[in-house]
Amino acid sequence: MQMTISDAGVALVERHEGFRAQVYKDGAGYPTIGYGHRLKGDESFPNGITLEQGTELLKRDLQTAETAVNTLVKVPLSQPQFDALVDFTYNVGAGNLEASTLLAELNKRDYSAVPGEFVKWVYAGGKVEPGLVTRRQDEANLWETATA
User: Fold this and answer.
1) Are 77 and 64 in contact, with CB atoms under 8 Å apart?
2) Is residue 2 part of a domain?
3) What is the H or E stretch that residue 136 is in?
4) How far is 17 from 108, CA to CA, in rounded Å?
5) What are the Cα distances from residue 143, in Å, to 1, 31, 84?
6) What is the CA radius of gyration of the chain?
7) Residues 8 and 83: beta-carbon distance below 8 Å
8) What is the DSSP string of 49-104?
9) Residues tagged active-site
């Protein structure tokens, strides 16, 4: 059965991404808008977007992270665990999830290892990023609220 992110999970992503109505360059220099939506080739938002448009872009973008989690995770998940993994994957990318020790431990059914693996992903440009520390702790806390 394919899982989808809950409203609480979407709210977690929104809180950590923050909303920007105008195009800006993200930490890697990519044109971005809304809740971390990277502009694709022909996309242009010269007048910015509304909060509602940002939410719609986010929901579409989250489908990629949902698909990755549904495909890569081979063990049962509770809704909070799924939400935490989708937030993580949205932030770090499906390729990083796939190559992670976090996924390897989880797929060995070591659910208890996951919170400690989340909190290792706090670096940007080789430096600890305070916003990532907070995000990873929130993911770890959400993970620990429920069992599969």
Assistant:
1) no
2) no
3) helix 130-143
4) 30
5) 20, 31, 6
6) 15
7) yes
8) --HHHHHHHHHHHHHHHHHHHHHH--S---HHHHHHHHHHHHHH-HHHHHH-HHHH
9) 17
Q: DSSP assignment, residue 113?
A: G
- How much is the pTM? 0.92
pLDDT tens series, the chain, 148 aa: 799 999 999 999 999 999 999 999 987 788 999 999 999 989 999 999 999 999 999 999 999 999 999 999 999 999 999 999 999 999 999 999 999 999 999 999 999 999 999 999 999 888 899 999 999 999 999 999 976 4
Q: Does the residue 102 lie in any domain?
A: yes
Range(s) of the domain holding residue 95: 7-143
How many residues are given for the chain? Answer: 148
Q: How many domains does the chain have?
A: 1
* Amino acid present at 23: V
Token pair, residue 18, equals: 């923050």
Question: Is 148 contained in some domain?
Answer: no
Q: And the tokens for 137?
A: 């702790």
Give bridge partners of residue 24 from the DSSP assignment.
32
pLDDT for the residue numbered 147? 60
Both structure tokens of 76? 């049962």
The answer as to whether 92 is a domain residue is yes
